[in-house]
Structure formats: structure tokens, C-alpha cells
Amino acid sequence: MEAKVPTRQAQALTGVSRSTMHRAAQAEARGGTGDKHPVPRSAPANKLSAAEQDHVLAVLHSDRFVDQAPQQIYATLLSEGTYLCSVSTMYRLLHDHAQVTERRRQARHPARTIPELVATAPGEVLSWDITKLAGPAKGIYYNAYVMLDIFSRFIVGCVVHTRETASLAEDFMATVFGVYGIPKVVHADRGSSMTSKPVTALLSDLDVVKSHSRPKVSNDNPYSEAAFKTLKYLPEFPERFGSLQHARAFMDDFVEAYNHEHRHSGIGLHTPADVHFGLTAQVDQIRHHAMHTAWQTNPERFAKHQLPKPLQLPAAAWINQPAPPSQEDTQLAA
């Protein structure tokens, strides 16, 4: 603290938490020693003696009670007219001797790797998923297979089937690759079709990197989830589709509007088609000319009489962009 070392760096060097450092500094400022307990505490009057503690542990370790919980032991002995100590004291003694643990077999799930993907141009990373469309009656659903480019948000493929199978998923992906080319990475969640052997074999044969979301983490597939939300929040989205043909016609219209009319805030309010096919420079020029003309005509209508900054197309699209290292972390690494 006297050397003006940042508390985060001091914590890494000493192993002392920052709260303890602040508490010590405040105590020293008040004229204290900075110790958490400067005056030794006297032993509680109701504390068991060492001999009594050994006797309680011996009873707990006896063949009669070795497999019973302290609460059961306490009740049994009390019913026999014997009181050793409270249940909490039994647990405290066992804990002090590292004898309190979970006896049941608990499932231990391994830590999942967070997918970190980046696309700096169209055609590099594709994301796909399957969403359910309610059919004409309860229990009837149609499956919409949708794949899009995460950089441009352009939907490169969409088909609707009555079933979700690995063979249909494989045919769907092969068709998309035949039209728009083979990407570097294909990302999806861990559905049965996404992790199936036919899809895995297809991607392996084409030398495409296969990426999957973590279990139950929808944020790992944000672009597909965002497209499905846009779809299902449309005012004209029906509560139920009357037939498979109805669902297919609706999805065809949606894809057309999504690609060529819907403007995304994440890509500078361009349409996915403009970004995917490299037309954004022309659109930006038209926008700039219109804004410049309006500013010259009525500059007082703009904040600080300055021309607003143009909307920018991001240089990259990320799935789980890693946080940049802080200045303190950089100093520690050095």
C-alpha cells in the first residue's frame, strides 16, 4: 500500500483479498493495528473440553453410529437418556476433522469450451438452426431449417419439412454449399440433427470446421436466435399454419423480406443482401449525400450544428467476442 501498488496487483502478489487490504488500511487510518481481531478472544464458556470433544468423536466413529447422520445420532442418544452436545456441535467437530462431505454420487459435468468465432467477410462463418412452426392442429409441427451468414445476416438457405432428420439436414447443407460456396466454419447448437453422423461426415469431407454451442446456452447461437425472434414477432405471423404448403410459402416470403428489406442495427442499418453482395459503399454514398444536403439546408436542426456521424458497418462479426485484457492485467502479465 505504501509503495502505491494497485490493489489488484497487490492481491495477485500477496494472495490477500482486496477487502482485507481496505479493512487494514482503514483501521490503520483510525490509529489501529489493522488486524482483523487485534484483541485475542476468550474461549466461550460453553465450549467442550478437549476430553469431551474426543469422547463425542469416539461415539460418532463407533460401529453403532459410523453410518448415521448426526441428527439421527442425537435423537437416538437423547431417547436413551444421554446428551453429549448439540447437533451443530457434532457437525462442527466432524468438519474440523474433514469428515463432513457429500455421500451421494453427484454428477460432475465437465466445463464446456466457450465457442469464439469471428467473421470478417461474407461466406466465412455460417450459423444454422431448426425452429418449430405450429401446424393446423395440436401436436402437429413443421420444421424450418434456416442457415444464415453471421457477417451479413443473409439467409443462405431455408426449407420446411414435416420431420427433423439427419438426412434432411445433410441434404439441406449440401444444397446451400452448392449455391453459396463452402464456408470455413458452420456453427449450430447441439440438437440431434446438428450432431448427427451424416452432418459430421459432410463437414469433415469438405474440410469445414464444426462448432457447437454449449448445452442450454442460447446466447452461443445469437444470430439464428435473433432471426427466429424477428420471424415469430411479425404481426402477420400466424398462430398456426394451415398446411405444409402454407408454412413453406410464408417462410419464402419471410426470407425475401428479411434479406432485401429488413435493416439490421448490427450492420449499420443495411439489408443483409447489400452487405452480402458488397453494395454497402453505394448505399452509404447515397445516405451521406442526403444527410449532407439536409444539413446544409437546415444546420440548426442538427445537434451542435454538426453533420451526424454516418452509420458504420462493423469490421467483424463475433460469436462470444473475448473481452480485451485490462490495463492492470497487462501490467501483471508484463
Automatic annotation (TrEMBL):
Residues 8-19 have a biased composition (Polar residues). InterPro entries: Homeodomain-like_sf (IPR009057), Integrase_cat-core (IPR001584), RNaseH-like_sf (IPR012337), RNaseH_sf (IPR036397), Transposase_IS3/IS150/IS904 (IPR050900). Signal peptide: none annotated. Residues 1-48 are annotated as: Disordered. One of its GO terms (biological process) is DNA integration. Gene3D superfamilies: Ribonuclease H-like superfamily/Ribonuclease H (3.30.420.10). Residues 118-280 form the Integrase catalytic domain. One of its GO terms (molecular function) is nucleic acid binding. It comes from the Bacteria. PANTHER family: TRANSPOSASE INSF FOR INSERTION SEQUENCE IS3B-RELATED, TRANSPOSASE INSO FOR INSERTION SEQUENCE ELEMENT IS911B-RELATED. This is Transposase. It comes from Enteractinococcus helveticum. The lineage of its organism: Bacteria, Bacillati, Actinomycetota, Actinomycetes, Micrococcales.
